[in-house]
Design goal:
alpha+beta, ten-stranded mixed beta sheet, three-stranded antiparallel beta sheet, 21 helices, 15 strands, 56% helix, 19% strand
Length: 474
């Protein structure tokens, strides 16, 4: 009975009720999108950290962590590898040589961390081979020990990422419906080689207006990009005695992840190719990377490996990528903050609306009290009115928010203006929003709690009415 009356009461003033419902709907949509973007960013960062950078577990010589010298290899290698091979939930593992080096071209140089890897085994635990940029060559293979795989950022630093307008560039842009008037202006830059993005952008700015750059700048930059694949890079390292040695590698491919910090330092060669550089009869193992079937098993596996590790250290992804771990662990806190702020703002609107409803219905409430409706039923009726108003808006908001997030989850949102800054701290410039069932359950609980709390003040206002005085209200 009370539920039926409460439901009918909220539609007695359609306009006022719809304003509240619309406010709740828009608030929930905003909350779903905010949390979806944050969830998407965190998942992408976690995925990048595990499948591009650190895997689930890594093993190193304990002293190597403090001082990355070439002779500090993993100890008790045979016993360690036997233990790893016996793990039940193992997805894959690899051994790597890992040496600090200097990379040099005729135009620039930079410090790097060079990894000696088995390309085929690496494909089972990392996704670097999927990150080769368009026009950026190919991944490593064992048949070409003189090849080196570098990142887009390293290519830029070493001046191997350049820009040039050619006849084929012009044709490609014409095929993308770039106006002929712009192509005529672009012709002034034809066959000029620019060795940095900054120089190219400055040259383009001189030829085009800001509106033209905003509309076609990205297309022009992408088509003008030219990687110097097969260019030589000199790699300099120190041998076991501390003496400098150099070797020449040819660029086979360019990769790009969402973490510029990782990209700027990590270059890859085959383990055999690196062995030829530092000499010796064996391939050195400075790092063992392990990927598990279930991320929740990392602590159990770490405990098992620590028992036989000897002088080695066993670190989980949380210790190797603490930023990703912290963001992942704090996700529930983000739920509370984002939805809490939205619900707090909506609560004031709901309270104001319900107080207005009580003032308008003073005589009606006095009549109900006079004919015997007790205060408990009055309180319940107002509380259910508030809950119905809020839940209708929340249901519409969650449904709409889910639909919008689903679409954006497929297309992605590109934060062009902040892309470079986001990638500098390891987060993707293009984010794919995600919402979980847990979030919707949490939102429903928060909505109901907000409705109940918002109903208390209006309900108390109604309970304080004197039936006799309320009936005299005009």
């Amino acid at each position: 009975m009370i539920l039926s009356i409460a439901w009918k009461n909220i539609w007695r003033n359609n306009k006022r009720s719809m304003v509240v419902i619309l406010a709740v709907t828009l608030g929930i949509i905003a909350g779903v999108l905010l949390v979806g973007i944050m969830e998407g960013w965190i998942r992408q960062r976690l995925d990048s950290a595990i499948y591009n950078e650190v895997s689930h577990i890594q093993i190193h010589n304990a002293d190597y962590i403090k001082n990355e010298e070439i002779n500090l290899t993993v100890g008790d290698l045979d016993a360690t590898t036997l233990c790893i091979a016996s793990l039940e939930d193992l997805k894959g593992w690899v051994k790597r040589a890992r040496i600090i080096a200097m990379a040099t071209t005729p135009w620039a140089n930079t410090g790097v961390m060079i990894y000696g890897v088995d390309p085929e085994k690496e494909k089972h635990i990392t996704e670097i081979y999927k990150k080769i940029v368009p026009g950026g060559g190919r991944y490593l293979d064992m048949q070409s020990p003189g090849d080196i795989l570098i990142s887009d950022k390293t290519a830029e630093i070493l001046k191997l990422k350049q820009y040039i307008i050619t006849d084929s560039t012009m044709e490609s842009l014409r095929g993308q419906n770039v106006p002929e008037s712009l192509l005529v202006k672009l012709g002034t830059l034809k066959d000029k080689r620019f060795r940095s993005p900054k120089d190219f952008k400055e040259a383009v700015k001189k030829e085009f207006s800001k509106k033209e750059i905003d509309r076609y700048g990205r297309q022009i930059t992408e088509k003008a990009l030219d990687y110097r694949i097969r260019n030589k890079i000199q790699i300099s390292i120190s041998d076991r005695d501390g003496n400098p040695i150099q070797g020449i590698f040819r660029v086979c491919g360019i990769y790009k992840t969402t973490n510029t910090g990782f990209d700027q330092t990590a270059v890859f060669v085959t383990a055999g190719g690196l062995q030829k550089l530092y000499g010796g009869d064996e391939i050195l193992t400075h790092e063992i990377a392990i990927l598990l079937e279930n991320i929740d098993d990392v602590n159990k596996v770490k405990d098992k490996l620590s028992g036989i590790s000897g002088d080695n250290t066993v670190d989980t992804w949380k210790e190797l990528a603490p930023d990703a771990a912290m963001m992942n662990d704090f996700m529930i806190l983000y739920y509370i903050i984002f939805i809490g702020i939205i619900m707090l703002a909506l609560a004031f609107g709901i309270i104001n609306t319900m107080l207005m409803a009580i003032l308008e219905r003073t005589k009606e409430l006095g009549m109900l009290m006079a004919i015997g409706m007790n205060r408990r039923r009055i309180f319940a009726m107002i509380m259910f009115e508030t809950i119905f108003l809020t839940i209708v808006g929340a249901a519409a908001g969650m449904l709409s928010g889910w639909g919008i997030t689903k679409i954006l989850g497929n297309t992605g949102i590109h934060f062009t203006g902040w892309g470079e800054g986001m990638e500098a701290i390891g987060y993707a410039a293009r984010v794919y929003p995600v919402v979980t069932v847990e979030f919707f359950i949490f939102t429903v609980i928060m909505v109901i709690a907000t409705a109940i709390v918002s109903s208390i003040w209006p309900a108390r206002k109604a309970l304080k009415l004197n039936p006799v005085e309320a009936l005299r209200t005009v």
